[in-house]
Structures are given as C-alpha cells and as structure tokens.
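Could you join me in thinking about how sequence relates to backbone shape in a protein? We need material for that, and I hope you will provide a protein of your own picking. Label the sequence line and the structure token line clearly, so we can match residues to local backbone shapes. Would you write everything just below, so we can both look at the same thing?
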Amino acid sequence: DPDFKLKLYEMMDRMIFPFFDAVVPLSEGLMDSLSHIPKLSHKLTLITNGVDIGEIEELEEIAAEVTALKAEGYLVIGYIGRLVHGKGLDTFLTSLEKLTDLKWKAVMVGEGEQEAELRELVKEKGLDEKVDFLGFRADRLSLLKGFDVFVLPSRSEGIPRCVMESMAAEVPVVASNIPGCRTLIDGEKTGALFEVDDADGLAESIRSTLTNSVLNEKYKVEAKRFLLERYSAKRMAKEYEALFKSLL
C-alpha cells in the first residue's frame, strides 16, 4: 500500500525511464508492469537477481548464538531482514505461539521502525524466553547457516535475496505465497508456501518442515539445485556483460 510520496516517486521513475538507453527489471512482475509504458518496451531487458553462493559455501563455522541453542536441543527458526510492517512479522510471531508441541527458539536478525512494536508483541504473547532480537549483524550468513528453517512472511517482495541465500545455504524456506516468493519457491519441491497473514497456515508449514525429515531433505536438495540452475551470480554477471556490450 504505497503512500503518496512513494506513488509520486514511482510516477517520476516511469516518466524518465524512456529516456534511458536500457532499463533492467529484476523480476517478471516488474517487467510486465513496465512493458506498457510508451517507447519503453524495446529498451527492457529482464535480468533476474542472482546470489554468489561462494561466500556461503566457504563458511565453516555457525555463529555462536545459534550453536549454543542447537546444543541445548532447540530447533532454530530464523528471520533475517528489516523489521517493518510489510514483512508480516506480526503474523510470524502469532504463528510461533501455536508451536507448543515443538522445542524451538526464534532468531530475528535486523533492524527497523517496527522493532519496538514487535518486542511488545513478543511480551504480550509470553514469548520473551523464546524469541531473540539480535539487531543488525554483519555475520548474518553464519547465523543463517545454522537455522533449521528460514521464514519470510512478507506481504510484498521483489525476488528476495534472503530466500536465495537460504536456498544456497541448504536451509529449508517457508515463505508467503506472493509473486516474488513464488518465483523461487514452488510449495512442493523447493520450499513451503503459506497464504499472506495466515498465522495458522504458517505454523503448520513450519511444523511440517521441521518434523518431516523426507520433506526437509527434499527442500534442501531441490532448492539448491534450482538456485544453481536459474539464479547464480555468474549467470547474472554474464547477462549484464552481454547487455553492456550490446549498448556499446
């Protein structure tokens, strides 16, 4: 739900795009939204975002906080990103209180304007001892690599890098059923999808991902295979190189 300033910003974007030599949408959704602008369609080149898995694969150690939780027998449910309304984190926290049959801890990495509100919600739900806010972390990947499941409950996204990083790290993903997430997650092989703002559906997806070992392993293997085939940073770099050469 963009406010007036964001709508104005986007309108100005669309007015000046036709004067560029090339415009690169990062997803099919963005490509479709721009293709109807007069004198722009022939300047569009779709280049989807990629992720450099080398940095992730070179990581050998998991962050101490996560290692300690796992040593105590906890399943670690993680989120990495901005703490803002559009990420659906209120739904995430509501879903967690439904997982009474599992021994879990949730780790939230990031900062944002909704942090105080989310901390208060955690207190209201009596989850103080179950949810850890770690703030901004430069070592987010070493935290991610230790998660048992990564959750992205967003209400809107482009193609989320955090999901691609999770797939590269072989961490099963549970994400909201929105266009950006559906580009990466099919709900069957590469991860689980739940409907936006459906806390019950999210809780069930987290539960099945954590408790069904066959499903869990399939998400890990199929997600990484899909990522390497379609969303590698090497592929993205080559496509930008080809575009630059064509412009020259």
Summary: The first strand starts at residue 75 and ends at 80. The mean pLDDT is 94.
